[in-house]
Amino acid sequence: MKNLFLYLLTVAIWGSTWYAITLQLNGTPAQRSVTYRFALATLILFGWCWLRRLRLRFSHQEHFLLMLVGLTLFSANYVLFYEAEKHLVSGSVAIIFSLLVVFNILNNWLLFGLKPDRQVIAGATLGLLGIVLTFWRDLHTINSGSQSILGIALSVAATLTASFGNLVSARLQRRQVPVVPANAFGMLYGTVLLFAYVLLSGATFSFDTSPKYLGFSSLLGCLWFSNSV
Fold first, then answer.
1. Structural domain tally of the chain?
2. Residue at 105 is within a domain
3. Is residue 12 part of a domain?
4. Predicted confidence band at 226 (pLDDT cuts at 50, 70, 90)?
5. Are 84 and 155 in contact (CB under 8 A)?
6. Region for residue 10 given its phi and psi (left: phi exceeds 0; alpha: psi -120 to 50; beta: otherwise)
7. What is the residue range of 142's domain?
8. Per the domain annotation, does 114 fall within a domain?
9. What pLDDT score was predicted for residue 15?
């Protein structure tokens, strides 16, 4: 029963995330919205680590891996997803994100020689077929300049980036780095990288003070905290 509750809670958190992202797209550049979102989540996670007295000291090599997690899972992939949701409905982006399972299997096979068994390959193939059928009409309009194709390409790129991040996270777990502190540092590095990217792009850090934007930015930060813990 406990496992079922945790599974349903994860589904609820991830499912609401995709919809909440669309409510943040009110003209504020995607990279700034992601920066604000993860800055809040970083503060909450480090506060949780402090309250629980969790270990926060890691080796230089582990910090390098945590920085890669920040780049792949907590910055670049989310900027791509935010941009994708300007061209696709949130449900479609969520469906494409299910390709993560396929990419994880392929990357583990190609990079680490971990060949999947037949059942895993069959399940991944079935899932991939479902995604192709879902976007069959959009794929047929690829030569007509459809904005949906751009959204699909951005979503696939974001999912592939997240897959590389999952491989790095798996390596951290093998080194017995606790999940919550790892996510805290990953988000910290991701936030710093996003902040640097915004500055280098010449954008200004203006902030939307509307209740809608503030509310959903806070909600997304809290959802990431809940999913991490």
1. 1
2. yes
3. no
4. very low
5. yes
6. alpha
7. 60-202
8. yes
9. 63
- Determine the pLDDT at residue 8: 74
Mean pLDDT over each residue of the chain, to the nearest integer: 79
The whole-angstrom separation of Cα 24 and Cα 207 is 12
pTM of the model: 0.77
Question: Tell me: the pLDDT tens digits for 19-59?
Answer: 666 666 666 676 777 788 788 889 888 998 999 888 899 99
In this prediction, residues 77-98 reach a mean pLDDT of 80
| Residue 96: inside a domain | yes
The token duo for 141 is 């309009």
* CA-wise closest residue to 22 among 76, 69, 86: 86
Token pair listed for 147: 């904005």
Distances (CA, A) of 161 to 37, 97, 99, 104: 19, 11, 11, 10
| Cα 59–chain centre separation | 25
* CA distances, 7 to each of 57, 92, 170, 227 (Å): 30, 22, 20, 11
Apex CA 24: angle with CA 98 and CA 190, to 5°?
65
